[in-house]
Amino acid sequence: MPSGRRVRRTRDGVFQVRLPPEERELLVTLVGALRAALDGDDPQAEPALRRLFPPAYAHPADEEAEAEYQALVHDDLLASRRAALDVLEATASRDRLEEAELLSWMTALNQLRLVLGTRLDVSEDDEPGPDPEDRAAPLHDIYHYLGVLLEAVIDALER
Q1: Is 23 within a domain?
Q2: Which residues contact residue 156 at a Cβ distance below 8 angstroms, ignoring those fewer than 6 apart?
Q3: Within the chain, what is the greatest distance between any pair of CA atoms?
Q4: What residues contact residue 66 under an 8 Å CB cut-off, 6+ apart?
Q5: Considering the entire predicted model, what is its pTM?
């Protein structure tokens, strides 16, 4: 196994996480920001949060059905989103994680990436990197970092 792997399964079945303190702090900060948005503390986050609560009915004629669907599932989805964020925040400083904890990391990282990508209006057609002169360039770097870390988590879970 390459020694530079960020996340790897150990012989005893737990997962070793190798992240520098700055990256761990960044993750905790991002979790706090997303939690605040989920709690309604950031009104500008509303459009980006829609990715976390996708509609079941996209056609305008199905507005009533969509409202019923959201009434049924929104609270459960919100609770599961928060639970994954809670696990990431609580375990961000740890070097060893159980599989269930790493699965929560995967979920939380994906949520963070979806919301940030939506805010940045990232699409599959985007160029590999942002313009360094763009004020949002640091956010694009964070978006890319979350993708790399998410890929490392998925890779470790698949091994």
Answers
A1: yes
A2: 5, 7, 8, 9, 15, 102
A3: 55
A4: 55, 56, 57
A5: 0.89
CA–CA gap between residue 152 and residue 159 (Å, rounded): 11
In a domain, 150, yes or no: yes
Looking at residue 143, its pLDDT comes to 96
pLDDT, tens digit, for every residue of 71-106?
999 999 999 999 999 999 999 999 999 999 999 999
Does the structure show a pLDDT above 50 at 1?
no
- Whether 1 is covered by a domain: the verdict is no
